Amino acid sequence: MNAAWLAVFAASLWAMRRRGRAASLGALGATFLALGGGVGNGVAHLALALRAGGYFPGLYTAALCLVAGAVLLARLRAITGVGVD
């Protein structure tokens, strides 16, 4: 399954290099993966550790996912100009 998500991410990056509608769809795919795989995964694992009252598997890498997802979202925002005045 991870290989499928990696393929989706690679296709999104390839589409973002194109112009027009393909670039928009590529940015949408990359944003979805940044939110779900990066930010969402990071927040979820941190919340699960809090709920468990201690260590939860994936806790240490969750912080890396959270930071990587946030950086990716910021870069996508800068590239696409969405929300930039």
UniProtKB/TrEMBL annotation:
Q: Where does the sequence pass through the membrane?
A: 32-50, 57-76
InterPro entries named among the record's database cross-references: HXXEE
User: Has UniProt tagged this entry with the keyword Transmembrane?
Assistant: yes
Highest taxon, organism lineage: Bacteria
Transmembrane: is it a keyword of this entry? Answer: yes
Q: What Pfam family does this protein match (any one)? A: HXXEE
Which keywords accompany this UniProt record? Answer: Membrane, Transmembrane, Transmembrane helix
The protein depicted here goes by the name HXXEE motif-containing protein
